Amino acid sequence: MTRWRTLWGLVEAACLIGLAAFIVYLLVAGNYWMYLNPKFKELSWAAAAALCGLGIYSVARPPAGATWLRAMAFVFVLALCLSSELGVRKWLANAGVDSQALEETQSAPPPSRVTKSNVEYVRINLGELFDIAGKSLQDKVALNYAMRGFVRRTPESDAKGEFVLYRVALYCCFADTTAVGFRVRAPKGELPEDGSWQVVYGRLEASRDPSADSVTSLGGSVFASVQPDYLFDARRIEADKAPGMGMMYEWRSQEPYAY
Predict the structure, then answer these.
(1) Where are the alpha helices (DSSP H) in 114-166?
(2) How does pLDDT run across 145-192, given as a tens digit for each residue?
(3) CA–CA dist 89, 73 (Å, integer)
(4) Tens of pLDDT along 191-215?
(5) Separation of alpha carbons 112 and 257, rounded Å
(6) Burial zone of 245 (CB within 10 Å; 0-12 exposed, 13-18 middle, 19+ buried)
(7) Domain residues of the chain, as ranges?
(8) Domain 109-239, CATH
(9) CA 193, CA 238: separation in Å to the nearest integer?
(10) Of the candidates 160, 196, 210, 244, which lies 20 to 30 Å from 48 by C-alpha distance?
(11) Cβ atoms within 10 A of the Cβ of 117, count?
(12) Do residues 228 and 181 touch, judged by C-beta distance below 8 A?
């Protein structure tokens, strides 16, 4: 019996070390953003170190209470992690998402401002501008902004010469993703293709829409909300390619914004 308990204890130890290696792999291979907000990287490094330490200790002194059932639970968790990584990679490949390109974009952010047709625009992500509009920060509401996101159109918005620009926010992990959006008045009624990724240049305009603040479902799974008090008056729209999956991971209250 003691021999079997030692064996199952060693299996648990190997799984702990394997889980630590999996976390380190996500952190160094550019895949971390697929699972968690990058702001948790330091915590994940600490978790990997703790798991590795426990695993090494368990190799030296296998836990006396180890059983085959508990050991299989450890194996199942490790197998689940590995299979999830394979599944996510396959899904990203089918969707044409370049994980390495996203990592490079995050490490080398674009300039905080850009000039188009002699007009200077502040680069900002949609969530940050959503907060500015929600708090009615007048010193910031009056600025020219450049933000990016994906387009959603309806017959009703088309009739107004408008569309909604959305961006999905990942606060902690994929389970808590939500989308926020702005109504955008297209310049000269030039409406971009539904579902396309666009960069819009313009400024906020007070325009109350009582129906906009209702929470709806976007794509059947992600909750979405449109800013009710302001629309975005676009002077210029440019098609672009989404960085990775196009999610927002960070929010700042001043320049340089996360964009």
Answers:
(1) 126-135, 138-141, 155-159
(2) 999 999 999 898 898 899 999 998 877 766 667 888 999 999 987 899
(3) 25
(4) 999 989 999 999 999 988 766 655 5
(5) 7
(6) middle
(7) 2-98, 109-239
(8) 2.40.50.140
(9) 11
(10) 244
(11) 7
(12) no
Query: Do the Cβ atoms of 74 and 20 come closer than 8 Å?
Result: no
Residues in a beta bridge with 180? 167, 225
DSSP letter for each residue of 54-100 = HHHHHHHS--TT--HHHHHHHHHHHHHHHHHHHHHHHHHHHHT--HH
Burial class (CB in 10 A: 0-12, 13-18, 19+), 103: middle
How is residue 30 written in tokens? 């550019």
Question: Which residues partner with 238 through β-bridges?
Answer: 199
* CA–CA gap between residue 15 and residue 9 (Å, rounded): 10
